[in-house]
């Protein structure tokens, strides 16, 4: 089992082994969260690699990944635990025919056997490989009551089930929380975490990401792709800016189509991979794409 | 790294100095407005010990991870960090400078509080009693007078009538038709069985299985108000502020924005319970009172910066504007379309609608109209009450209620 990193540089190397190109600042936050056992709170636009951190940590540390996808109305029954009612009823029927006392039946049917464990409860269970990575994805989609419930879980790493009692983790899991910031998460929850805002990467770093994530794309094409995407982000009045995930997808798509260098036609054909709103596509398609591309080519030529 | 000392060991002298410095730094940040308590200072010390302080960058990001909680705090942290940790001498001067700045707001707040307290204690004797006697004396007249008040245009009201209209607005509640959520509550006549409650009840009582039931919890959707405060709307804007304040204090998830030539989010200011304080804060924050209107541009800003944050979970949008636009309707159509697609229901409230024979002729109005679900007047108390009842019903299908206007326009 790989041991947890001992310094910020170690953490950076660890993320690198998981094919995640990170800034040192992000590695600092990750290292703090790992070494002090407190949740890591990642915010940023969609597609900048927030969720990926949780996956990479689980993979490189050899831990189990437990993912809780949040949505509006997420409740205890689907996030923490539920009783297996059907089996409980069968058990009651059997017990009645066997003339057992009511106390024994009660103890019996509210036991571990009938408990369906959902992600949060699973994360508190001891594991051979060490405590798991708990990824709480898109927390901003839930409502305030669930956030308040998370407070108890994340500060003490314990869950109370009325019929059984309090379950406490022997070793706290590694918790990664992500948010797209469609609403502000309450300070009480953030206070318990290490916070990091993941920004769009610099051109240099994005090129490095492409080299690792889209090795099929030629170096020249990657440079053009990155320069074009960076241009879009800088000049844009787009509704949704393309994230790193879109850049990678676009590079893949262009490679699949055997495009060796960006042309206006190639951009028009594949713009749907990069931009996800019809208004945005309409704004860029055609002459605007051509204008941006000629700028990009000129700048690349000047840089060489 | 200069100014912080060599790598500290717990209990050593340099550790003590680092601890003190982090504490001063936290105080500086707190004075600058970041919400930092003693718990955060302890966490920062712990974090710095875990990372070590060999490199300035790591030190920066360690403190960043602890002290920064939101994206908009990053700039402030960055500036404070660079000023604070640049040079140890500066630090001492900074502390000298900081102490008065910390003291001033506290003093002010103290004064404000005591003044408000004095007012609050004073008021019952002076303010309320005459009102009550008035009600008693004019009991026969009140109804019809209120009736007159209800129909009178805000624009034509005298000072006293305005004051009474404001009081009436303050009492108004806005019962939005609520929506089912994905949560459940126990309900004896609910449509679903609550298996958990059933089993527990059965174990308690034994014997036959009596089904317990549950039904969906319901909750009103979020409300977003976009209000025009340009010159042509100035007669109304103060009253609308009262209306927005009443709504914002009555329920949660209300977001309010003002726009003229620029967009201002006043949600936070309207949370003050006291209307006068709330309005003072709003007046401070807004820079474009009674100026021109750039509807297209401000809507674009709203769409880009705020729509994803406040329009989630099926929000209802109230757009309060007369549709008179300085830019002659440029860009409004596309932005209205975007706005309409991102919310559950878009209601346009227009004070000009009171004129008989009104037709939406201006370019701004023509650009807005195709994208609104409902088009309503808002110029007197009656129309406000009409709005209240319209919002408490589920309402017709989207775009339908404003369809008639599109033909005349």
What labels describe this entry?
heterodimer; A: 304 residues; alpha/beta; Rossmann fold; 3 domains; 5-stranded parallel beta sheet; 15 helices; 13% strand; B: 409 residues; 6-stranded mixed beta sheet; 3-stranded antiparallel beta sheet; 9 strands
> Which range best describes the helical content of chain B: under 10%, 10-25%, 25-40%, 40-55%, 55-70% or over 70%?
40-55%
Low-confidence stretches of chain A: none
- β-strand percent of chain A reads 5-15%
State the separation between the terminal residues of chain B, measured CA to CA. 69 Å
Overall radius of gyration of chain A: 24 Å
Describe the largest sheet of chain B. Answer: 6 strands, mixed
Counting structural domains of chain B, the number is: 3
H and E order of chain A: HHEHEHEHHEHEHEEEHEHHHHHH
* Biggest sheet details of chain A: 5 strands, parallel
Instruction: Look at the helices and sheets of chain B and give the structural class.
Output: alpha/beta
Oligomeric state: heterodimer
Radius of gyration of chain B from the CA trace? Answer: 28 Å
Number of helices of chain A: 15
CATH class of the largest domain in chain B: Alpha Beta
Compute the number of strand runs of chain A. Answer: 9
- As laid out across the biggest beta sheet of chain A, the strand order is 2-5-8-1-9
Explained architecture:
- The complex is a heterodimer of chains A (304) and B (409).
- Chain A is of the alpha/beta class.
- Chain A has three domains: 8-80 and 118-198, P-loop containing nucleotide triphosphate hydrolases (Rossmann fold), CATH 3.40.50.300; 81-113, no CATH class; 203-303.
- Chain A has 15 helices and nine strands.
- Chain A has helices at 8-17, 24-36, 50-61, 76-79, 85-97, 102-109, 119-124, 144-156, 187-190, 203-213, 219-235, 244-256, 264-274, 278-284, 287-303, and strands at residues 40-44, 65-69, 81-83, 115-117, 133-137, 158-161, 165-168, 174-179, 194-198.
- In chain A, helix 1 (8-17) crosses helix 2, helix 11 (219-235) crosses helix 15 and helix 12 (244-256) packs across helix 13.
- The radius of gyration of chain A is 24 Å and the shape is elongated.
- The model of chain A has no long low-confidence stretch (mean pLDDT 90).
- Chain B is α/β, with parallel strands linked by helices and 409 residues long.
- Chain B has three domains: 1-137, no CATH class; 183-219, no CATH class; 223-408, Rossmann fold, CATH 3.40.50.
- The longest helix of chain B has 50 residues, at 88-137.
- Residues 1-11 and 97-144 of chain B have low confidence and may be disordered.
- Chains A and B meet through helix 2, helix 5, helix 6 and strand 9 of A and helix 2, helix 3, strand 1, helix 8 and helix 11 of B.
């Amino acid at each position: 089992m790989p041991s947890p990193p001992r310094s910020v540089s170690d953490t950076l190397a660890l993320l690198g082994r998981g094919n995640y190109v990170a800034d040192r600042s992000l590695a600092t936050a990750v290292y703090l969260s790992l070494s002090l056992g407190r949740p890591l709170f990642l915010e940023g636009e969609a597609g900048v690699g927030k969720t990926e951190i949780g996956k990479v940590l689980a993979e490189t540390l050899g831990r189990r990944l437990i993912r809780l996808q949040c949505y509006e109305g997420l409740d205890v029954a689907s996030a923490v635990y539920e009783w297996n009612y059907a089996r409980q009823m069968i058990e009651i029927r059997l017990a009645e025919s066997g003339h057992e006392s009511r106390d024994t039946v009660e103890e019996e049917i509210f036991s571990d056997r009938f408990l369906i464990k959902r992600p949060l409860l699973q994360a508190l269970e001891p594991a051979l490989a060490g405590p798991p990575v708990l990824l709480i994805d898109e927390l901003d989609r839930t409502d305030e009551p669930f956030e308040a419930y998370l407070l108890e879980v994340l500060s003490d790493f314990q869950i109370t089930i009325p019929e059984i009692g309090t379950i406490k983790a022997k070793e706290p899991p590694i918790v990664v929380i992500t948010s797209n910031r469609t609403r502000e998460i309450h300070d009480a929850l953030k206070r318990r975490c290490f916070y990091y805002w993941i920004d769009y990467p610099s051109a240099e770093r994005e090129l490095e990401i492409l080299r690792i994530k889209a090795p099929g794309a030629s170096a020249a094409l990657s440079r053009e792709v990155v320069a074009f995407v960076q241009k879009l982000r800088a000049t844009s009045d787009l509704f949704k800016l393309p994230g790193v995930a879109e850049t990678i997808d676009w590079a893949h798509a262009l490679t699949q189509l055997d495009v060796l260098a960006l042309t206006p036609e190639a951009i028009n054909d594949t713009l749907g991979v990069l931009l996800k709103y019809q208004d945005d596509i309409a704004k860029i398609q055609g002459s605007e794409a051509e204008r941006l591309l000629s700028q990009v080519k000129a700048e690349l030529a000047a840089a060489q | 790294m200069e100014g912080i000392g060599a790598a500290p060991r717990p209990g050593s002298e340099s550790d003590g100095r680092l601890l003190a410095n982090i504490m001063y730094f936290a105080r500086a940040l707190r004075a600058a407005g970041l919400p930092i308590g003693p718990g955060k200072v302890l966490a920062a010390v712990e974090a710095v010990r875990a990372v070590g302080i060999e490199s300035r960058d790591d030190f920066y990001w360690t403190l960043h991870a602890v002290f920064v909680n939101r994206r908009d705090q990053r700039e402030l942290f960055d500036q404070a960090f660079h000023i604070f940790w640049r040079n140890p001498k500066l630090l001492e001067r900074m502390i000298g400078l900081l102490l008065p700045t910390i003291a001033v707001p506290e003093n002010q707040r103290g004064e404000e509080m005591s003044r408000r307290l004095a007012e609050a204690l004073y008021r019952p004797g002076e303010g309320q009693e005459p009102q009550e006697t008035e009600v008693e004396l004019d009991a026969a007249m009140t109804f019809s007078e209120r009736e007159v008040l209800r129909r009178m245009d805000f624009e034509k009201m005298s000072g006293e009538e305005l004051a009474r209209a404001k009081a009436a607005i303050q009492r108004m509640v806005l019962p939005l038709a609520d929506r089912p959520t994905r949560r459940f509550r126990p309900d004896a006549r609910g449509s679903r069985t609550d298996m958990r409650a059933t089993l527990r009840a059965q174990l308690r009582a034994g014997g036959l299985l009596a089904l317990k039931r549950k039904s969906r919890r319901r909750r009103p959707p979020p409300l977003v108000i976009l209000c025009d405060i340009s010159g042509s709307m100035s007669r109304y804007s103060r009253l609308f502020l009262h209306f927005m304040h009443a709504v914002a204090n009555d329920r949660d998830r209300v977001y309010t924005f003002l726009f003229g030539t620029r967009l201002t989010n006043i949600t936070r200011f309207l949370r003050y319970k006291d209307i006068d304080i709330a309005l003072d804060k709003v007046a401070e924050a807004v820079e474009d009172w009674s100026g021109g209107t750039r509807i297209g541009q401000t809507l674009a800003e709203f769409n880009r910066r705020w729509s994803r944050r406040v329009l989630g979970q099926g929000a209802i949008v109230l757009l309060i504007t007369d549709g008179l636009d300085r830019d002659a309707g440029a860009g409004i159509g596309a932005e209205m379309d975007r706005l309409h697609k991102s919310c559950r229901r878009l209601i346009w409230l227009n004070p000009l609608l009171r004129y008989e024979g009104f037709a939406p002729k201006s370019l701004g109005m023509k650009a807005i109209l195709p994208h609104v679900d409902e088009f309503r007047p808002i110029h007197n108390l009656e129309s406000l009450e009409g709005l209240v009842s319209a919002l408490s019903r589920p309402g017709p299908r989207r775009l339908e209620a404003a369809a008639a206007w599109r033909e005349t326009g």
